Fold this sequence. Notes:
Blueprint: H1 14-29, H2 35-49, E1 55-61, E2 65-73, E3 79-81, H3 85-93, E4 97-99, E5 117-125, E6 128-137, H4 145-161
Antiparallel strand pairs: 1-2, 1-6, 2-3, 4-5, 5-6
Bound molecules: methionine sulfoxide.
Amino acid sequence: MTQTLPDPPREASAELLYATLLAALDGLLAGERNSIANLANTAALLYTMLPDLNWAGFYLYDGTELVVGPFQGKPACVRIALGAGVCGSAAAARSTLIVADVHAFPGHIACDAASRSEIVVPLVAGPRLLGVMDLDSPRLARFGPADASGLETLAAHLVRASDW
Ligand code: SME
């Protein structure tokens, strides 16, 4: 299957950008339920189409801790305990976490010194924690409520479209 990604809309509102991303993601996920394949293509889609990112990808819950999964960006720390850093905090709380300034977040785990802000969206299937989606930006306060809501919708589609 070959798919040409749409150009990200110029000067688009976050809502339009996430609507474009969702349509592109649904196209990528159609007909494929392998979770690694779908995580990998989702990471590439996010990294390619969202501006001002230096890392986009996933940590997967192995029943004990988070282990790095498919991503785009510099090599990252491999294992994160539940409750540790931004990823482990969002996973433990099972809720989206936006950090406007990672240097001001106690326990932030620095994988790329360029990162200044971060958003982490848990992947959950009912009560089951599957992992987290993690985006880093070199720009302070890059992420806001529109990103949280857009990424949560993308994460829900990814979870529903894959076998875990
Ligand atoms: N900063 C994250 C670690 C993962 S990297 O950003 C890719 C954290 O504090 O959990």
